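Batch job 17 of 40 flagged for manual review because the log was empty.
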Amino acid sequence: KPTIAVLSFDNMSDDPDQDYFSDGIAEDIITDLSQLSKLSVIARSSSFTYKGTPTKVQDIGKNLGVDYLVEGSVRKVGNQIRITVQLVDTSNGHHLWAERFDRELTNIFALQDEITEKIVSALAIQLTGGEQQQLAHNATNSFEAYDLFLQGQRFRSYSEEDLDQAAEIYKNVINLDPDFARAYGAMAIVIIRQVFAGYTDSPAEMEERALELARKAESIYPKSPEVLWALGYVHMYRNQFEEAVEALERAVSLSPSYADGYALLALIKNNQGHGEDAIRLIEKGIELNPHYSWHYLYNLGRAHYTLGHYMQASEYLQEALELNVTPSHPRLFLIASYVQLGQQEDAEWEAIQLDVSHPEITLSHLQQTFPIADTELMDRLISDLRSAGVAE
Protein backbone atom coordinates (compact mmCIF):
# COMPACT_ATOMS: atom_id res chain seq x y z
CA LYS A 1 0.00 0.00 0.00
CA PRO A 2 1.21 3.58 -0.61
CA THR A 3 3.19 5.35 2.11
CA ILE A 4 2.85 9.02 2.97
CA ALA A 5 4.32 11.59 5.35
CA VAL A 6 2.76 14.90 6.37
CA LEU A 7 5.42 17.53 7.05
CA SER A 8 4.91 20.28 9.62
CA PHE A 9 3.06 23.19 8.02
CA ASP A 10 4.93 26.49 7.77
CA ASN A 11 3.64 29.24 10.01
CA MET A 12 3.15 32.23 7.71
CA SER A 13 1.49 34.36 10.40
CA ASP A 14 3.29 37.45 11.69
CA ASP A 15 3.47 35.88 15.15
CA PRO A 16 6.09 33.08 15.53
CA ASP A 17 4.20 31.91 18.64
CA GLN A 18 1.52 30.64 16.27
CA ASP A 19 3.74 27.66 15.37
CA TYR A 20 1.64 25.46 17.67
CA PHE A 21 -1.39 26.14 15.49
CA SER A 22 0.20 25.28 12.13
CA ASP A 23 1.76 22.19 13.73
CA GLY A 24 -1.63 21.20 15.15
CA ILE A 25 -3.32 21.43 11.74
CA ALA A 26 -0.70 19.13 10.19
CA GLU A 27 -0.84 16.74 13.15
CA ASP A 28 -4.61 16.37 12.86
CA ILE A 29 -4.26 15.52 9.16
CA ILE A 30 -1.78 12.80 10.19
CA THR A 31 -4.28 11.51 12.75
CA ASP A 32 -7.03 11.36 10.12
CA LEU A 33 -4.91 9.67 7.44
CA SER A 34 -3.52 7.15 9.97
CA GLN A 35 -7.00 5.68 10.32
CA LEU A 36 -7.08 4.52 6.69
CA SER A 37 -6.34 0.82 6.19
CA LYS A 38 -5.11 1.26 2.58
CA LEU A 39 -2.48 3.88 3.44
CA SER A 40 0.68 3.69 5.54
CA VAL A 41 1.35 6.99 7.34
CA ILE A 42 4.65 8.03 8.93
CA ALA A 43 4.41 9.30 12.51
CA ARG A 44 4.55 12.99 13.41
CA SER A 45 7.79 12.66 15.36
CA SER A 46 9.54 11.50 12.18
CA SER A 47 7.94 13.78 9.59
CA PHE A 48 8.29 16.89 11.81
CA THR A 49 12.07 16.46 12.09
CA TYR A 50 12.38 18.43 8.83
CA LYS A 51 10.66 21.50 10.32
CA GLY A 52 12.58 24.65 9.40
CA THR A 53 15.15 22.69 7.37
CA PRO A 54 15.04 23.19 3.59
CA THR A 55 15.31 19.65 2.18
CA LYS A 56 14.49 18.27 -1.27
CA VAL A 57 11.28 16.23 -1.31
CA GLN A 58 13.12 13.39 -3.06
CA ASP A 59 15.63 13.25 -0.16
CA ILE A 60 12.88 13.30 2.46
CA GLY A 61 11.05 10.58 0.55
CA LYS A 62 14.18 8.44 0.52
CA ASN A 63 14.98 9.09 4.21
CA LEU A 64 11.46 8.28 5.40
CA GLY A 65 10.79 5.57 2.81
CA VAL A 66 7.59 7.21 1.54
CA ASP A 67 5.94 7.55 -1.85
CA TYR A 68 4.17 10.85 -1.15
CA LEU A 69 4.59 13.98 0.95
CA VAL A 70 2.02 16.49 2.13
CA GLU A 71 3.41 19.95 2.79
CA GLY A 72 1.67 23.22 3.46
CA SER A 73 1.48 26.57 5.17
CA VAL A 74 -0.93 28.32 7.52
CA ARG A 75 -1.59 32.05 7.81
CA LYS A 76 -3.90 33.22 10.56
CA VAL A 77 -5.00 36.88 10.58
CA GLY A 78 -7.79 37.99 12.88
CA ASN A 79 -10.67 35.56 12.37
CA GLN A 80 -9.45 34.53 8.91
CA ILE A 81 -7.23 31.62 7.97
CA ARG A 82 -5.43 30.72 4.74
CA ILE A 83 -4.09 27.19 4.35
CA THR A 84 -2.09 26.12 1.31
CA VAL A 85 -1.52 22.38 0.81
CA GLN A 86 0.45 20.33 -1.76
CA LEU A 87 0.59 16.60 -2.32
CA VAL A 88 3.96 15.67 -3.88
CA ASP A 89 5.22 12.48 -5.55
CA THR A 90 8.64 11.90 -3.94
CA SER A 91 9.97 9.91 -6.92
CA ASN A 92 10.05 12.99 -9.16
CA GLY A 93 9.01 15.99 -7.04
CA HIS A 94 5.85 16.55 -9.12
CA HIS A 95 2.75 17.99 -7.46
CA LEU A 96 -0.23 15.62 -7.73
CA TRP A 97 -2.53 18.17 -6.16
CA ALA A 98 -2.24 21.67 -4.69
CA GLU A 99 -4.87 24.06 -3.40
CA ARG A 100 -5.28 27.25 -1.39
CA PHE A 101 -8.12 27.55 1.11
CA ASP A 102 -9.38 30.85 2.56
CA ARG A 103 -11.88 30.45 5.39
CA GLU A 104 -13.09 31.93 8.64
CA LEU A 105 -11.47 30.33 11.70
CA THR A 106 -14.85 29.07 12.89
CA ASN A 107 -14.93 26.80 9.80
CA ILE A 108 -11.55 25.19 10.56
CA PHE A 109 -13.05 21.77 11.28
CA ALA A 110 -14.90 21.51 7.97
CA LEU A 111 -11.74 22.74 6.25
CA GLN A 112 -9.59 20.02 7.84
CA ASP A 113 -12.12 17.40 6.67
CA GLU A 114 -12.03 18.87 3.16
CA ILE A 115 -8.21 18.79 3.00
CA THR A 116 -8.10 15.15 4.13
CA GLU A 117 -10.78 14.22 1.59
CA LYS A 118 -8.83 15.95 -1.22
CA ILE A 119 -5.64 14.05 -0.31
CA VAL A 120 -7.51 10.72 -0.22
CA SER A 121 -9.17 11.50 -3.54
CA ALA A 122 -5.87 12.49 -5.20
CA LEU A 123 -4.39 9.15 -4.09
CA ALA A 124 -7.48 7.31 -5.43
CA ILE A 125 -7.97 5.49 -2.10
CA GLN A 126 -11.34 3.80 -1.53
CA LEU A 127 -12.66 4.38 2.00
CA THR A 128 -14.75 1.88 3.94
CA GLY A 129 -18.01 3.05 5.49
CA GLY A 130 -16.40 3.04 8.93
CA GLU A 131 -13.47 5.13 7.72
CA GLN A 132 -15.81 7.68 6.18
CA GLN A 133 -17.62 8.00 9.52
CA GLN A 134 -14.31 8.37 11.38
CA LEU A 135 -13.13 11.15 9.10
CA ALA A 136 -16.43 13.00 9.40
CA HIS A 137 -16.23 13.15 13.22
CA ASN A 138 -15.14 16.47 14.75
CA ALA A 139 -13.41 16.36 18.13
CA THR A 140 -14.99 19.69 19.09
CA ASN A 141 -17.10 22.41 17.51
CA SER A 142 -15.52 25.16 19.62
CA PHE A 143 -12.63 26.90 17.90
CA GLU A 144 -11.57 28.48 21.20
CA ALA A 145 -11.36 25.05 22.88
CA TYR A 146 -9.50 23.56 19.90
CA ASP A 147 -6.97 26.42 19.80
CA LEU A 148 -6.31 26.09 23.53
CA PHE A 149 -6.00 22.29 23.23
CA LEU A 150 -3.29 22.71 20.57
CA GLN A 151 -1.43 25.05 22.95
CA GLY A 152 -1.55 22.30 25.58
CA GLN A 153 -0.01 19.86 23.12
CA ARG A 154 3.19 21.95 23.11
CA PHE A 155 4.02 20.81 26.66
CA ARG A 156 5.36 17.38 25.81
CA SER A 157 8.13 17.01 28.40
CA TYR A 158 7.81 15.22 31.73
CA SER A 159 9.07 18.19 33.76
CA GLU A 160 6.94 19.31 36.71
CA GLU A 161 6.51 22.78 35.21
CA ASP A 162 5.35 21.50 31.80
CA LEU A 163 2.94 19.00 33.35
CA ASP A 164 1.44 21.72 35.59
CA GLN A 165 0.99 24.07 32.63
CA ALA A 166 -0.56 21.35 30.47
CA ALA A 167 -2.96 20.37 33.27
CA GLU A 168 -4.11 23.97 33.67
CA ILE A 169 -4.67 24.33 29.92
CA TYR A 170 -6.65 21.07 29.56
CA LYS A 171 -8.79 22.02 32.56
CA ASN A 172 -9.68 25.27 30.76
CA VAL A 173 -10.35 23.37 27.50
CA ILE A 174 -12.83 21.10 29.30
CA ASN A 175 -14.55 24.16 30.82
CA LEU A 176 -14.92 25.60 27.31
CA ASP A 177 -16.21 22.32 25.83
CA PRO A 178 -17.31 19.62 28.31
CA ASP A 179 -17.71 17.17 25.38
CA PHE A 180 -14.12 17.41 24.05
CA ALA A 181 -13.06 13.77 24.49
CA ARG A 182 -9.38 14.23 23.58
CA ALA A 183 -9.00 16.94 26.25
CA TYR A 184 -10.15 14.53 28.98
CA GLY A 185 -7.74 11.92 27.62
CA ALA A 186 -4.85 14.39 27.53
CA MET A 187 -5.61 15.49 31.09
CA ALA A 188 -5.62 11.85 32.25
CA ILE A 189 -2.15 11.31 30.71
CA VAL A 190 -0.77 14.41 32.45
CA ILE A 191 -2.10 13.29 35.84
CA ILE A 192 -0.62 9.79 35.54
CA ARG A 193 2.75 11.31 34.63
CA GLN A 194 2.57 13.57 37.68
CA VAL A 195 1.84 10.53 39.86
CA PHE A 196 4.64 8.43 38.42
CA ALA A 197 7.17 11.24 38.70
CA GLY A 198 6.29 11.70 42.37
CA TYR A 199 4.96 15.25 41.87
CA THR A 200 1.90 14.67 44.10
CA ASP A 201 1.21 13.92 47.76
CA SER A 202 -2.00 12.03 46.97
CA PRO A 203 -1.09 9.45 44.29
CA ALA A 204 -4.05 7.10 44.93
CA GLU A 205 -6.60 9.92 44.55
CA MET A 206 -4.84 11.23 41.46
CA GLU A 207 -4.80 7.77 39.86
CA GLU A 208 -8.55 7.46 40.42
CA ARG A 209 -9.04 10.90 38.91
CA ALA A 210 -7.00 9.93 35.84
CA LEU A 211 -9.07 6.77 35.31
CA GLU A 212 -12.29 8.74 35.73
CA LEU A 213 -11.14 11.25 33.08
CA ALA A 214 -10.01 8.54 30.64
CA ARG A 215 -13.33 6.69 31.01
CA LYS A 216 -15.20 9.96 30.51
CA ALA A 217 -13.22 10.51 27.30
CA GLU A 218 -14.08 7.01 26.07
CA SER A 219 -17.76 7.48 26.90
CA ILE A 220 -17.84 10.65 24.78
CA TYR A 221 -16.05 9.16 21.77
CA PRO A 222 -15.03 5.47 21.98
CA LYS A 223 -13.63 5.45 18.42
CA SER A 224 -10.85 7.96 19.03
CA PRO A 225 -7.43 6.24 18.86
CA GLU A 226 -5.93 9.00 21.04
CA VAL A 227 -8.62 8.53 23.68
CA LEU A 228 -8.05 4.76 23.69
CA TRP A 229 -4.30 5.36 23.96
CA ALA A 230 -4.93 7.51 27.06
CA LEU A 231 -7.22 4.85 28.56
CA GLY A 232 -4.62 2.14 27.93
CA TYR A 233 -1.90 4.33 29.43
CA VAL A 234 -3.88 4.89 32.62
CA HIS A 235 -4.79 1.20 32.94
CA MET A 236 -1.14 0.25 32.46
CA TYR A 237 0.04 2.46 35.31
CA ARG A 238 -2.71 1.02 37.50
CA ASN A 239 -1.37 -2.49 36.74
CA GLN A 240 -4.61 -3.33 34.88
CA PHE A 241 -2.74 -4.90 32.01
CA GLU A 242 -5.56 -6.86 30.34
CA GLU A 243 -7.71 -3.72 30.18
CA ALA A 244 -4.72 -1.77 28.86
CA VAL A 245 -4.07 -4.32 26.10
CA GLU A 246 -7.74 -4.31 25.11
CA ALA A 247 -7.81 -0.49 24.80
CA LEU A 248 -4.56 -0.34 22.78
CA GLU A 249 -5.58 -3.17 20.45
CA ARG A 250 -8.75 -1.22 19.70
CA ALA A 251 -6.64 1.91 19.07
CA VAL A 252 -4.33 0.28 16.50
CA SER A 253 -7.31 -1.49 14.92
CA LEU A 254 -8.98 1.90 14.36
CA SER A 255 -5.68 3.51 13.34
CA PRO A 256 -3.39 0.98 11.59
CA SER A 257 -0.60 3.57 11.21
CA TYR A 258 -0.61 4.59 14.88
CA ALA A 259 3.10 4.20 15.68
CA ASP A 260 2.78 5.35 19.28
CA GLY A 261 -0.11 2.91 19.71
CA TYR A 262 2.18 0.00 18.80
CA ALA A 263 4.91 1.45 21.05
CA LEU A 264 2.64 1.65 24.10
CA LEU A 265 1.24 -1.81 23.40
CA ALA A 266 4.86 -3.04 23.31
CA LEU A 267 5.51 -1.40 26.68
CA ILE A 268 2.47 -3.16 28.18
CA LYS A 269 3.66 -6.48 26.76
CA ASN A 270 7.00 -5.74 28.41
CA ASN A 271 5.24 -5.13 31.72
CA GLN A 272 3.53 -8.52 31.32
CA GLY A 273 6.90 -10.15 30.68
CA HIS A 274 6.13 -10.91 27.00
CA GLY A 275 9.45 -9.80 25.49
CA GLU A 276 9.01 -11.38 22.05
CA ASP A 277 5.60 -9.74 21.54
CA ALA A 278 7.10 -6.42 22.63
CA ILE A 279 9.91 -6.65 20.06
CA ARG A 280 7.47 -7.49 17.23
CA LEU A 281 5.25 -4.52 18.14
CA ILE A 282 8.07 -2.03 18.56
CA GLU A 283 9.53 -3.04 15.19
CA LYS A 284 6.14 -2.24 13.63
CA GLY A 285 6.27 1.13 15.40
CA ILE A 286 9.79 1.81 14.10
CA GLU A 287 8.64 1.03 10.54
CA LEU A 288 6.05 3.81 10.90
CA ASN A 289 8.34 6.13 12.86
CA PRO A 290 11.88 5.87 11.39
CA HIS A 291 13.06 8.93 13.40
CA TYR A 292 11.78 7.27 16.55
CA SER A 293 12.11 8.70 20.06
CA TRP A 294 13.96 7.25 23.05
CA HIS A 295 10.78 5.36 24.07
CA TYR A 296 11.23 2.92 21.18
CA LEU A 297 14.82 2.08 22.07
CA TYR A 298 13.86 1.82 25.73
CA ASN A 299 11.15 -0.68 24.83
CA LEU A 300 13.58 -2.74 22.77
CA GLY A 301 16.13 -2.66 25.56
CA ARG A 302 13.54 -3.70 28.15
CA ALA A 303 12.33 -6.57 25.98
CA HIS A 304 15.87 -7.89 25.57
CA TYR A 305 16.46 -7.56 29.34
CA THR A 306 13.27 -9.57 29.92
CA LEU A 307 14.49 -12.27 27.52
CA GLY A 308 17.96 -12.35 29.14
CA HIS A 309 19.73 -10.76 26.16
CA TYR A 310 21.70 -8.38 28.38
CA MET A 311 24.30 -7.21 25.87
CA GLN A 312 21.63 -6.22 23.32
CA ALA A 313 19.60 -4.66 26.13
CA SER A 314 22.51 -2.50 27.27
CA GLU A 315 23.20 -1.31 23.70
CA TYR A 316 19.59 -0.22 23.06
CA LEU A 317 19.31 1.42 26.50
CA GLN A 318 22.55 3.38 25.98
CA GLU A 319 21.16 4.62 22.66
CA ALA A 320 17.91 5.62 24.39
CA LEU A 321 19.84 7.72 26.91
CA GLU A 322 21.90 9.30 24.11
CA LEU A 323 18.62 10.51 22.58
CA ASN A 324 17.26 11.78 25.91
CA VAL A 325 19.27 11.72 29.11
CA THR A 326 16.36 12.88 31.33
CA PRO A 327 14.02 9.85 31.72
CA SER A 328 14.76 7.41 34.53
CA HIS A 329 13.36 4.23 32.95
CA PRO A 330 16.16 3.48 30.44
CA ARG A 331 18.78 4.05 33.14
CA LEU A 332 17.04 1.62 35.53
CA PHE A 333 17.22 -1.22 33.01
CA LEU A 334 20.72 -0.23 31.88
CA ILE A 335 21.91 -0.52 35.51
CA ALA A 336 20.24 -3.94 35.78
CA SER A 337 21.72 -5.11 32.46
CA TYR A 338 25.23 -4.07 33.54
CA VAL A 339 24.83 -6.04 36.76
CA GLN A 340 23.80 -9.13 34.79
CA LEU A 341 26.80 -8.65 32.47
CA GLY A 342 29.16 -8.42 35.45
CA GLN A 343 30.00 -4.77 34.62
CA GLN A 344 29.72 -3.70 38.26
CA GLU A 345 31.62 -0.41 37.94
CA ASP A 346 29.41 0.71 35.04
CA ALA A 347 26.30 -0.31 36.99
CA GLU A 348 27.36 1.65 40.09
CA TRP A 349 28.29 4.73 38.04
CA GLU A 350 24.85 4.71 36.36
CA ALA A 351 23.21 4.27 39.81
CA ILE A 352 24.97 7.46 40.97
CA GLN A 353 23.68 9.29 37.85
CA LEU A 354 20.17 8.05 38.66
CA ASP A 355 20.42 9.36 42.22
CA VAL A 356 21.61 12.76 40.99
CA SER A 357 18.92 13.16 38.32
CA HIS A 358 16.04 11.39 40.11
CA PRO A 359 16.64 11.37 43.89
CA GLU A 360 12.98 10.49 44.43
CA ILE A 361 13.46 7.05 42.84
CA THR A 362 14.15 4.36 45.43
CA LEU A 363 13.59 0.61 45.41
CA SER A 364 10.53 0.97 47.65
CA HIS A 365 9.15 3.71 45.34
CA LEU A 366 9.64 1.43 42.32
CA GLN A 367 8.00 -1.54 44.07
CA GLN A 368 4.97 0.63 44.82
CA THR A 369 4.66 2.39 41.46
CA PHE A 370 6.48 0.49 38.70
CA PRO A 371 3.93 -1.45 36.63
CA ILE A 372 5.34 -4.95 36.12
CA ALA A 373 2.93 -7.89 36.32
CA ASP A 374 5.61 -10.59 36.10
CA THR A 375 6.78 -10.95 39.74
CA GLU A 376 9.87 -12.93 38.73
CA LEU A 377 10.90 -10.12 36.37
CA MET A 378 10.24 -7.48 39.05
CA ASP A 379 12.29 -9.44 41.61
CA ARG A 380 15.17 -9.72 39.12
CA LEU A 381 15.07 -5.98 38.39
CA ILE A 382 14.98 -4.97 42.08
CA SER A 383 17.78 -7.42 42.93
CA ASP A 384 19.96 -6.07 40.12
CA LEU A 385 19.33 -2.44 41.13
CA ARG A 386 20.10 -3.25 44.77
CA SER A 387 23.39 -4.84 43.70
CA ALA A 388 24.34 -1.56 42.00
CA GLY A 389 23.61 0.47 45.13
CA VAL A 390 20.26 2.07 44.21
CA ALA A 391 18.77 3.49 47.43
CA GLU A 392 16.27 1.35 49.35
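Reviewer: the log was empty due to a logging misconfiguration, but the result itself is present. The chain has a mean pLDDT of 94. Unflagging and moving on to job 18.
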